[in-house]
Write a structure and sequence with these properties.
The chain has about 120 residues and is mainly beta. Strands 2, 4, 5, 6, 9, 10 and 11 form a 7-stranded mixed beta sheet that branches. Strands 1-3-8-7 form a 4-stranded antiparallel beta sheet, with no helix packed on it.
């Protein structure tokens, strides 16, 4: 079975930082994409960052220069370091995994496996 578990959300003041983690167990793909997404109340889910199994990273324009993603292979965990947070970053953050071609700047949301999400709230 594939399990995707996010952690690390919380409440932070504008300008602050948080680090989210995404731990994947039972990955069925030899070449894969892990994507970070977020969804604010009343809004559609949107892409944030992704990491392909060959190391290629992609960031949405609205987080470039502020968010970075990194992989700890030994822990099967992908991290999302979020700096200079803004109130508009407030959302539920999700992690998902699927085949490598899901890593795209079109940010498809039809990934097969998703985590339950972790809430990030940025106060002004």
């Amino acid at each position: 079975q594939v399990h995707v578990v996010e952690a690390g959300g919380g409440t932070v003041q504008a300008g602050g930082s948080l680090r989210l983690s995404c731990t994947v167990s039972g990955n069925p793909y030899s070449t894969y994409c892990i994507g970070w997404f977020r969804q604010a109340p009343g809004k559609e889910r949107e892409g944030v960052a992704s990491l392909r199994s060959d190391g290629t990273k992609t960031y949405a324009n609205y987080v470039k220069g502020r968010f970075t993603t990194s992989l700890d292979n030994a822990k099967n965990t992908l991290y999302l370091q979020m700096n200079s947070l803004k109130p508009e970053d407030t959302a539920m953050y999700y992690c998902a995994i699927d085949r490598f071609y899901f890593c795209s700047d079109t940010w498809p949301t039809s990934y097969t496996y998703w985590g339950q999400g972790t809430q990030v709230t940025v106060s002004s």
